[in-house]
Predict the 3D structure of the following.
Amino acid sequence: MGASGQMRQVLSAPPKSRPPLCAGRRGKHPMQLFHNASMRRLFAALCLGSALAAPAFATPPVAAPARPVPAIPATPLRTPQPGQVQPLAPGTRPAPKIPTLTLTPAIPQVHQVTYLSNGFIEVAHAVITVTPQERPNLRPLVAQVAAAVLAARPTLSEVDLSVYDRGSYAGFGGPLPLLTASVPRERLGAFLAWTTQRTPFDRVWVNPGNLPVYLQPDRVRETVPVPVAVSSQETALERQARKQGGLLGGLLYRSKFRYVPLAALTFDDAPHPMYEPLLLDMLRRSGVKATFFVIGRNAAAYPYFIRDMTQQGHEVGNHTYHHVRLPPLPLNEAVNEMRWASDIVQKLTGKPVRYFRPPGGEYTPQTLQAARSLGLNTVFWTDDPGDFQNPGDAVLESRLHRNLRPGGVVLLHDNAPEMLNVLQGFLRVARQEGYALTTVGGLPK
Ligand SMILES: [Zn+2]
């Protein structure tokens, strides 16, 4: 649907009286970096188009707008800087400092080694950068780094490695690594055998080096939203879906059953090479299954974590391929973002993807309809404690408990350090209060 069709949808929406669900929520997402205030207002209007309107690919109605649409000044195309595409627990408060490990003797290619504990196990993540001349000999290098890190800190259960091109390295959200590996201490021997004898090792990924341009994060475009009449009201569908619960028109806010002490536990932005094994370990110890809304590009680069999720009984959902906000994108790009993420998840899990969470919770009637056409239901939440804003453990814990409701959906982020600090306590208290936590799929609709 073109710009004029979207305008008509918004303008023809009936009068509403409540603030939008898709703008101005508490717990704003770090991807808001992409948008200034006017873009957010525009998006608020985009959210308003009746989601009950014509399907995304249908011909728009021919009726002319009832009143003139205010002109919106043109804004140039935006290309996110490398590192902005992927959130890494930033926020309104500085993230707690993550400890680093110093190797002696130093290995020149090691950029940084960070490590963290979940109270039970410790995991390290080593970032390695290499020159083009060093690229043909990555295996001996990663063998050396893995062995050195595990030797330097005997309490580590696992070291995960990300090898990047030095010239283009721009953090976790920049261009994808050249090679990644997950090396549990007890599997170091098998990993070393992979590096020397090329025996199979299932926890390694080598960038094929031939990924098409669209799979490179720094090529994602965030484009100007189409001009629409600005309003700040929610659609009838949103209001109804929130009020009555259950699946309605492809939207899910909570279960329809408010008296069953069952809530869904969800984690956005997975997988991350240091946090994922810590989180999966904690959930395994608690016997809790959750839904992970994963970023497609990172699922591709760390496929073994997606397989771990499935093997441990968790559900894997779609959080777009590049973690990009959908409303400003042309519809075909928004559809591709959803499709590519579903494709990689399905390839890794062997299961069709059923649930989708748009970055920032932002969508339009068109993206909602497109998600449905891809077999995806769009999932929101009832309990968002703002873990990525680093509010402090006590505040985070109290928000989590205060908002937990039967039939609710809890939103957390897999790469928020304070989440790791409070999760164990939250799971314990939820259990003591009689709650069972489950996947989105496990929530009665
Ligand atoms: Zn996200």
